[in-house]
């Protein structure tokens, strides 16, 4: 059945990559909990409501033997995605218009069997209950027995604060839905109200100051995100325990969270059942004023580890986030944060990962004692160390005929400056020179040919080919 335009066709939702949805990451978290998970290199992955599908297309470009399907209700988003997939000949990603409600009943039949990973990012808290239920029904219908499902949503109790700002905006703007008046104007009007409200006043109480700070954070958002995320017709943040109950009614059991923080809620030696895990996580949410969840679900009865067991580190690799640097024997810096790693062996291991990035190193070589295991988990929870299930899926050295994947080159050909690395990080490259250089890397030219081509471009003074290739390899943008 043809689908008409939606509010996401009228105001485009910016396409983006979400690292924590990557099957490689989901497999690592499953393994950390002692569970088997399909090898992401050959997995089948479904993204529900993934807009134009850039998220799965970037995964597909890095994992050519895995199969991806992205569905969304907005025809213009899907047309954009299909055009991009065709432009780069991406054969392992299907991008299709579908309504979750229909898909939960019939469409799933056409998709060639069960999925090892199912992603629903930025959908659940912004759609009516019928679509929420259909999302869970669809996941239940297609998730493989060893599958992992990812569902993100605005959470309580932080949602109460966001709702206070949303109510303020909708009341001042004189409507309760997003589809009245000129959409972009409404978003700009909301931005102006937030900008004004967000300025500190001398007379502020602590509570007012906190709400103003939240308003300021909202004004950092892209206008289009603000329009959909804060002014959408449906706004239904939920407490974790409610989502767990709703998922439980569809044969989905809570595993843990996909983002750093709270991977485990118990310590070794503790006996903790699944209900106790949810209860502890929920209590932590209330105390920490949780705003957003990226919850993972598996089939019931899989008995995940509920407290850490260092033996599973044998099955994992580790890497460090971009921007981490060692600044002293024990001192490290990331963005504006400086911190210490007291254990010299761990500090050296971190430095080795920084030097070898984007390579990922086996954890087993390092984490041989419970003390090191605990230290590793603390770093993971703080986002300073990343666990992986796969080696870096690209080239660590440029090789004879350097290649950037066809999706990257197609994005550059479209004039896009927001690109991605093969470890699924967004990277903005605004300057023309590096973009042109990347677009030459189609695997057909050896270094001598690349040098000649680069000289012909009239920009050779910007950099030499060898150091440009080294930089792109280091950034994780070159394919094998
Ligand atoms: C907030 S956007 C999130 C897009 C993307 N997942 C992301 O996080 O960047 C919500 C998406 O849900 C899609 N959507 C809403 N209702 C839907 C339905 N019934 N079936 C399929 N997609 C739906 C919209 O078209 C939109 O692309």
What are the key terms here?
480 residues, binds S-adenosylmethionine, 3-stranded antiparallel β-sheet, 7-stranded mixed β-sheet, 15 strands, Rossmann fold, 4 domains
Please work out how many helical segments DSSP would assign.
Answer: 18
Radius of gyration from the CA trace? 23 Å
CATH superfamily of the largest domain: Vaccinia Virus protein VP39
What general outline do the C-alpha atoms trace? globular
Q: Identify the CATH architecture of the largest domain.
A: 3-Layer(aba) Sandwich
Structural class: alpha/beta
Into which percent range does the helicity of residues fall? Answer: 40-55%
Number of structurally distinct domains: 4
Q: What name does the CATH topology of the largest domain carry?
A: Rossmann fold
Low-pLDDT stretches: none
Name the bound molecules: S-adenosylmethionine
The count of strands amounts to: 15
Mean of pLDDT: 92
Q: What percent strand?
A: 5-15%
- The largest beta-sheet arranges its strands as 3-2-1-4-5-7-6
Briefly summarize what is shown:
Helix content is 41%, strand content 15%. The protein has 480 residues and is α/β, with parallel strands linked by helices.
Describe the structure in your own words.
With 480 residues, this protein is of the alpha/beta class. It has four domains: 7-155 and 237-298, Rossmann fold (3-Layer(aba) Sandwich), CATH 3.40.50.150; 158-231, no CATH class; 310-388; 406-474. The protein is 41% helix and 15% strand. The protein has helices at 7-10, 23-32, 54-62, 75-87, 100-105, 129-142, 158-173, 183-197, 206-219, 223-231, 240-248, 274-288, 344-356, 370-381, 406-413, 432-440, 447-456, 465-474, and strands spanning 44-48, 67-72, 93-97, 115-120, 143-154, 253-257, 292-298, 317-319, 325-326, 331-334, 337-340, 361-362, 386-388, 418-420, 426-428. It has a seven-stranded mixed sheet with strand order 3-2-1-4-5-7-6. The longest helix is centred in the middle third of the chain and has 16 residues, at 158-173. The structure holds S-adenosylmethionine. S-adenosylmethionine binds next to helix 5.
């Amino acid at each position: 059945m043809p689908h008409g335009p939606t509010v996401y066709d009228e105001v485009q939702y910016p396409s983006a990559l979400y690292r924590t949805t990557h099957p490689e990451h989901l497999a690592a978290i499953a393994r950390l909990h002692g569970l088997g998970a399909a090898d992401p290199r050959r997995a089948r992955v479904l993204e529900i409501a993934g807009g134009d599908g850039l998220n799965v297309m970037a995964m597909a470009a890095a994992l050519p033997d895995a199969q991806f399907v992205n569905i969304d209700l907005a025809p213009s988003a899907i047309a954009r995605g299909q055009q991009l997939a065709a432009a780069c000949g991406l054969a392992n990603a299907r991008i299709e218009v579908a309504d979750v409600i229909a898909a939960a009943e019939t469409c799933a039949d056409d998709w060639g069997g069960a999925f090892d990973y199912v992603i629903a990012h930025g959908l659940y808290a912004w759609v009516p209950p019928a679509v929420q239920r259909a999302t869970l029904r669809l996941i239940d219908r297609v998730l493989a027995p060893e599958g992992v499902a990812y569902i993100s949503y605005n959470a309580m109790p932080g949602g109460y604060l966001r709702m206070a700002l949303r109510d303020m905006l909708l009341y001042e703007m004189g409507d309760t839905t997003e589809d009245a008046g000129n959409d972009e104007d409404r978003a700009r009007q909301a931005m102006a109200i937030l900008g004004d409200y967000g300025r500190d006043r001398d007379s502020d109480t602590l509570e007012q100051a906190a709400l103003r700070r939240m308003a300021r954070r909202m004004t950092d958002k892209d206008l289009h995100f603000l329009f959909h995320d804060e002014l959408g017709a449906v706004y239904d943040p939920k407490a974790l325990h409610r989502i767990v109950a709703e998922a439980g009614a569809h044969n989905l059991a809570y595993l843990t969270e996909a983002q750093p923080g709270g991977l485990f809620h118990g310590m070794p030696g503790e006996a903790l059942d699944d209900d106790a895990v949810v209860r502890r996580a929920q209590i932590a949410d209330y105390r920490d004023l949780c705003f957003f969840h990226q919850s993972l679900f598996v089939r019931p009865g899989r008995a995940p580890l509920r407290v850490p067991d260092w033996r599973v580190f044998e099955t994992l690799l580790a890497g460090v986030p971009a921007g981490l640097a060692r600044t002293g024997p024990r001192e490290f810096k990331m963005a504006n944060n400086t911190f210490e790693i007291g254990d010299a062996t761990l500090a050296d291991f971190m430095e080795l990962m920084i030097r070898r990035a984007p390579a990922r190193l086996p954890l087993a070589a390092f984490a041989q004692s419970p003390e090191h295991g605990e230290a590793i988990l603390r770093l993971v929870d703080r986002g300073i160390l990343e666990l992986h299930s796969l080696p870096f899926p690209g080239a660590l050295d440029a090789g004879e005929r350097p290649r950037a994947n066809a999706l990257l080159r197609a994005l550059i050909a479209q004039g896009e400056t927001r690109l991605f690395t093969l470890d699924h990080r967004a990277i903005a490259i605004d300057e023309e020179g590096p973009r042109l250089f990347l677009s030459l890397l189609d695997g057909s030219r050896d270094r001598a040919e690349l040098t000649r081509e680069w000289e012909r471009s009239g920009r050779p003074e910007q950099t030499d080919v060898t150091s440009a290739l080294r930089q792109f390899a280091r950034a994780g943008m070159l394919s094998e």
